[in-house]
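User: Hey, quick favor. My workstation is busy. Could you predict this chain's structure for me?
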Amino acid sequence: MKLVSNPLLSITLLAAVLRVAGMIVEPLWYDETFTASLVGLPLENMVVATLGDVHPPTWYLIEWAVAQLMGVNILGLRLVSLLAGVALVPLMWKLAVRFDLNPTAAALITAISPMFIVYSNEARAYSLLYLLAAIATLALLDKRWIWFILSAAGMLWLHNLAVF
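Assistant: No problem, here it is.
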């Protein structure tokens, strides 16, 4: 079978299946309801409301844009995290190659890791933060300074823990 001959594709599809399976099963939890309440506001009101939050406004702006297209529902709220979580798998493959590690193992661990699956199913910024961190690391290793600056700045504007 063709998928077996392409382990990265197979592992990425596995990651997608594991993330989609849990995406709509779990109800929104407290922090996700905060995201939902913010993105349900008109843009001007949402930006003002984010001033009282500890996180930078970028996540809420991204979620607000998606909510305009898909509505304020579980699928729409969790879609960005889902896509970022799946996209992280091939980037971990690339990082493993760069560090002369086993890329299949790195991608598989990322695909089946409970932490990465949970973060891919939350309407919060964690999954996107990990994706940007992987992009920044690859860009730094490849001396692609524009990509490094953009992804590092994106991290800082996305989540308050990015400084660490």
